[in-house]
Amino acid sequence: MRSATVTRTTAETKITVDVTLDGTGQYDNQTGIGFFDHMLDQLARHSLIDMNVRCEGDLHIDDHHSVEDVGIALGQALTQAMGDKRGIVRYGSCLLPMDDALVRAALDLSARPFLVWNVDLPTAKIGTFDTELVREFFQAFSTHGGITLHVDMLHGVNSHHIAEAAFKAVARALRDALEVDPRKADAIPSTKGAL
Fold first, then answer.
1. Which one of 110, 130, 180, 186 has the minimum C-beta count within 10 Å?
2. Cβ neighbours of residue 191 closer than 8 Å, sequence gap 6 or more
3. Using only C-alpha atoms, what is the Rg of the chain?
4. Using CB atoms within 10 A of its CB, is residue 14 exposed (0-12), middle (13-18) or buried (19+)?
5. Is pTM, for the whole model, over 0.90?
6. Which three-class secondary structure string do you get for the chain?
7. Dihedrals φ, ψ of 40, to 5°?
């Protein structure tokens, strides 16, 4: 079973993340940030990664440290759970519609982190959540997960729909990339022999 637990404690946050890559998308995410929990739930459900996140953060300041540090811990957990990446498909992509929003995500589990973010969230807030934190999450997640990640908004007017479509598109791309390739289940998917 490809799974991992990561605990991260700083002066700003205390986080525990549990992931099982070969799951069914079960989740129990509690960060104290309602909209962010909703997005993490979408990430788990649509990637089929079982995910439990606990975060106690300095929310009296703002949500930034909690969102970024969960991204860091979740990326680290993904990296640990993948191990040497033997047998994975490696690449994944998704073109995901959600009402007015259409978001494309493409990724490579390459151990070469890079984020390309072409997403314009038209409002500064979704409820009380700062929309700029959506990018911050994916920056931390891609960096610490070793993911080359491209996210492009093709259409959208509603910030909630755009953000949710981004999380779902990344989730579906992850689901594809993490699958074990039955034709190459014992091979690392690189001509270098390592990822």
1. 186
2. none
3. 16
4. middle
5. yes
6. CCEEEEEEECCCEEEEEEEECCCCCCEEEECCCHHHHHHHHHHHHHHCCEEEEEEEECCCCCCHHHHHHHHHHHHHHHHHHHCCCCCECCEEEEEEEECCEEEEEEEECCCCCEEEEECCCCCCEECCEECHHHHHHHHHHHHHHCCEEEEEEEECCCHHHHHHHHHHHHHHHHHHHHCECCCCCCCCCCCCCCC
7. -65, -40
> The tokens of 83 are what?
């191990």
Give me the amino acid identity at 176: D
* CA distances in angstroms from 191 to 41, 187, 188, 194, 195, listed in the order given: 35, 10, 8, 8, 10
Local confidence pLDDT in tens for the 195 residues of the chain: 899 999 999 999 999 999 999 999 999 999 999 999 999 999 999 999 999 999 999 999 999 999 999 999 999 999 999 999 999 999 999 999 999 999 999 999 999 999 999 999 999 999 999 999 999 999 999 999 999 999 999 999 999 999 999 999 999 999 999 999 999 999 999 999 999
- Tokens of residue 9, six digits: 């404690």
Nearby residues of 96 by Cβ (< 8 Å), 6 or more positions away:
102, 103, 104, 105, 165, 168, 169, 172
